[in-house]
Design brief:
alpha/beta; Rossmann fold; 2 domains; seven-stranded antiparallel beta sheet; six-stranded parallel beta sheet; 18 strands; binds NADP nicotinamide-adenine-dinucleotide phosphate
């Protein structure tokens, strides 16, 4: 199927899109805004760097929601999408998805890199059906890219700014139908931040959801200087950032973390004082207790056994009994802005899984890899397309 899709892109610049004629209110809205922009614009064919052709629309005048639009933005874009819930096989590369319209508080970003999160997989499997946006869905929460259009109420960003962010304020409650695994994505100004200059788009794309989760979890747990912490799942996307943030941002007195044997050195390099090999030891049977346990694995039942009296156990997935609690991250660009100095100084480093970055054509393979549960740091997609 992958080969079929790739060859159809080369031979037919306008194949059928996964996105049907508008039927839902949101699709009608998207369609009407895009249509309005097209009618007031000049359409022409453009040859891309890869030799393929596509329609490029140069806006003749600004739409009411768009303050300035000097950058050329095509009418249609390539995006990964699915129109039914299921395993990674439901994902299809669609080259005729409408570029999302830009709300007055939003920016349109040309996505240079995106990253995958386990929640993308859980959502695609239909786990959050009741609160999901309508199908078809372009998945993806994390992105880094360049602002190509700004809404009329946008205050601090302008075209050409390099930004990164997690594009859906609430991950599970009505997440964006048009996510980041696409050439363009529209996102509220308040959810993004200017990209740290010292890291590239691929590194930046892996940060937002994971670092915001790490930050929010540590804050909710009341973590502060001088406290000790145990991080369960220290080598994963979230855990690798919890270790670094606990040490470098919050001033932990002691950081312990769990991983399998080949990843113990990584834990140490991230700042863990104690690296526990979960294939050889049960952390809940060791004598040490901690002020905070941060569980990124789903071991809440064991985590509550190793917390000091009066301490906190924060879990990201699975059940937990008091004093443990679970939360779902809220996207917030101001957290990224606050953490930028730690990234720019190199005190906190993005960890990109060495099997990647995966090219845009290999999103299915990248998801299959993420879903093994063995990723180190973040699974990143770059370049796009
Ligand atoms: N509630 C929220 O807001 C929120 C936000 C972000 C993520 N999450 C959830 O949190 C979980 C972790 O997310 P993530 O992005 O960090 O996942 P991830 O990057 O896919 O995690 C993979 C890592 O987990 C490690 N791991 C697996 N089993 C382990 C075990 N028994 N002990 C220690 N480490 C283990 C693996 O290391 P080894 O190869 O060494 O086993 C691997 O490095 C997911 O369930 C995700 O959905 C929730």
């Amino acid at each position: 199927m992958q080969a079929f899709i790739s060859s159809s892109i080369l031979t037919n610049p306008c194949p059928r899109s996964l996105f049907p004629r508008p039927t839902t209110q949101s699709q009608l809205l998207l369609s009407s805004v895009t249509g309005a922009r097209t009618s007031a614009a000049t359409a022409r064919r453009s040859v891309q760097g890869d030799g393929s052709a596509r329609c490029v629309v140069t806006p003749a005048s600004s739409s009411p929601a768009v303050a300035a639009a000097a950058t050329e933005v095509p009418e249609k874009m390539k995006a990964w999408a699915y129109d039914e819930y299921g395993d990674a096989g439901v994902l299809k590369l669609d080259e005729a998805v409408s570029v999302p319209p830009v709300g007055e508080d939003q920016v349109l970003v040309r996505v240079e890199a995106a990253a995958l999160n386990p929640v993308d997989s859980k959502r695609r499997m239909g786990k959050f059906k009741a609160t999901d946006s309508p199908l078809p869905t372009v998945p993806g929460y994390d992105m880094a890219g360049v602002v190509v259009k700004v809404g009329s109420q946008v205050k601090s960003l302008k075209e050409g700014d390099e930004v990164y962010g997690h594009i859906s304020e609430k991950v599970l409650e009505g997440p964006k139908q048009y996510g980041s695994l696409a050439e363009y994505t529209a996102v509220e100004e308040k959810l993004v931040a200017v990209k740290p200059k010292n890291i590239d788009f691929a590194q930046a794309a892996g940060l937002p959801l994971a670092i915001e989760t790490a930050h929010e979890g540590l804050e909710r747990a009341g973590f502060s200087a001088g406290k000790s912490i145990l991080v369960l799942g220290g080598a994963g996307g979230v855990g690798s950032l919890v270790i670094q943030m606990a040490k470098q941002v919050f001033g932990a007195s002691k950081v312990a973390a769990t991983a399998s044997t080949p990843k113990l050195e990584l834990l140490k390099s991230l700042g863990a004082d104690v690296a526990i090999d979960y294939t050889k030891e049960n952390f809940e049977e060791l004598p040490e207790k901690y002020d905070v346990v941060f569980d990124a694995v789903g071991q809440g039942d064991k985590a509550v056994k190793v917390v000091n009296e009066g301490g906190s156990v924060v879990v990201l997935t699975g059940a937990v009994a008091p004093p443990g609690f679970r939360f779902v991250v809220t996207s917030d660009g101001s957290v990224l802005t606050k953490l930028n100095p730690y990234l720019e100084s190199g005190k906190v480093k993005p960890i990109v899984d060495p099997k990647g970055p995966f090219p845009f054509s290999q999103v299915v393979e990248a998801f299959s890899y993420l879903e093994t549960g063995r990723a180190t740091g973040k699974v990143v997609i770059s370049p796009i397309p």
